[in-house]
């Protein structure tokens, strides 16, 4: 599932003033996103998609396959293979520099995502364990 219509977010930050407008922030974030009818939970099932058998006809020269769409849709199944924490987490360090004229923070963020199972990034690939980001402005 991608996205949802409700979210739950917890955030803890510790600010350290380094010099003038520069601050060092240690943070820990945890949260969930759920769709309509899905409750928030402590644990969630890890499922595996069982795909139907291969195509009915294969032409190796053309790379086009022929399948029976009705039969394939009926054969797709899922099974539960375990459980994991439903909360996705991120922890790390951030350096904020406040521009005196604009009063807008420039942010350099380094984060580790230890509980990221099932989370996709902006390119729909599995989320990486470590991230580095640059941002301008506040989080809220």
Termini separation comes to 25 Å
Which term fits the overall shape? Answer: elongated
Structural class: mainly beta
Low-confidence stretches: none
What order do the strands of the largest sheet run in, or round the barrel if closed? Answer: 1-2-7-8-9
Determine the mean pLDDT: 81
**Helix amount, in percent?**
under 10%
Order of helices and strands: EEEEEHEEEE
Number of H- or I-type helical stretches: 1
Radius of gyration: 22 Å
What are the main properties of this structure?
140 residues, mainly beta, five-stranded antiparallel sheet, two-stranded antiparallel ribbon, 9 strands, elongated
Describe this structure in words.
The chain is mainly beta and 140 residues long. It has 1 helix and 9 strands, in the order E-E-E-E-E-H-E-E-E-E. It has one helix at 69-75; strands at 6-19, 22-34, 43-50, 57-59, 64-66, 77-85, 88-99, 104-112, 130-136. The strands form 3 sheets. The protein has a 5-stranded antiparallel β-sheet with strand order 1-2-7-8-9, with no helix packed on it. A hairpin with a 4-residue loop joins strand 7 (88-99) and strand 8 (104-112). The longest helix has 7 residues, at 69-75. The protein is elongated. The mean pLDDT is 81.
Topology, pairings included?
Layout: E1 6-19, E2 22-34, E3 43-50, E4 57-59, E5 64-66, H1 69-75, E6 77-85, E7 88-99, E8 104-112, E9 130-136
Antiparallel strand pairs: 1-2, 2-7, 3-6, 4-5, 7-8, 8-9
């Amino acid at each position: 599932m991608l996205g949802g219509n409700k979210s739950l977010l917890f955030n803890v930050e510790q600010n350290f003033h380094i010099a003038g407008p520069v601050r060092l922030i240690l943070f820990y974030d945890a949260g969930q996103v759920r769709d309509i009818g899905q409750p928030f939970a402590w644990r969630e099932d890890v499922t595996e998609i069982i795909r139907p058998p291969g195509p009915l006809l294969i032409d190796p020269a053309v790379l086009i396959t022929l399948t029976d769409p009705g039969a394939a849709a009926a054969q797709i199944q899922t099974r539960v293979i375990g459980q994991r924490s439903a909360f996705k987490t991120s922890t790390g360090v951030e350096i904020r520099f406040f521009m005196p004229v604009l009063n807008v923070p420039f942010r350099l963020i380094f984060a580790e995502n230890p509980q990221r199972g099932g989370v996709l990034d902006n390119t729909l690939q599995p989320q990486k364990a470590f991230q580095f980001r640059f941002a301008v402005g506040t989080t809220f």
